[in-house]
């Protein structure tokens, strides 16, 4: 990748060894890819468990492909002494190592932070766990659903009957990846400022990430003694129209007056029940019932056009296909279509702040897809490589499913 004066590739030249699995760690490493870093994905013979989760085929899934785009992959059996020596060689040539093993596992396979520092002084190690590296729950396995339950996220997202429900995506994993990517970027910046940098071991947990992300609803709950809070503003919600749903939000009284005028009922603004946001909160059922009946009389686009003209916040309730076809999304180039030999053509969101077009990167690799190529680059000779492959210390992809 050649850098020009107009390109923003702040981590070009940074070498990352991504030994993490699933979503959180790989997504953090993917953020570095999108800022120009060179990332090698290291997997055991059984592969990253993300390769068998979600919709997909032959070890390429909806969970794994987007967070491993632009990486090259090597398969190493770290249970063998020869495999650990291979990883030592790669550590010596890396600036960052990222892992998501349970606490203590990295030390067991001879790759603890002390060892890494000796192999590569100044190295940055990022460790992501479910509940942290110490404490009464440190050894517990953690998953997205478990952490949504444990951190109050499911309770915050309760349904109309007050029943907790998980957010319908791997939100905690993605959030943890974002925090980890930010922390790694800061550590890389420190590393680059000084040739004598001592290195950093950054420890992040899904527990900590999910807790930090919910600072606002947590404070709301604290201030209201745990009582379920009312909507911040009313009316605010989704409404059915003649041919689809729209989201409508009135943040200020002026917006509500504009909404009332568009709907042909300017007198609502003078109604004591709806005079200000506090009154509308007390009478939310009444105002929402009135809105529901009127919105059903016209198509979705009619209401969106009329409300946008008056400054009322509104928008369509889109499917993913609607989003892909949205004119603004297309104008900004937010979802370019990429091609993959297994998954075919699909939209790959551009990372905000990155100038890298995912279409210019190599596709998400197969398990051990570049094993031989990477061993050559690391300095192993042909005889060594053949022995490593023959003894299944390292595995080169055969294109078969895992």
TrEMBL record:
Classification lineage: Bacteria, Pseudomonadati, Pseudomonadota, Gammaproteobacteria, Pseudomonadales
Organism: Stutzerimonas stutzeri
Protein name: CoA transferase
Keywords: Transferase
Domain of life where this protein originates: Bacteria
Listed PANTHER family: BLL6097 PROTEIN, SUCCINATE--HYDROXYMETHYLGLUTARATE COA-TRANSFERASE
Database matches in SUPFAM superfamilies: CoA-transferase family III (CaiB/BaiF) (SSF89796)
GO molecular function, one term: CoA-transferase activity
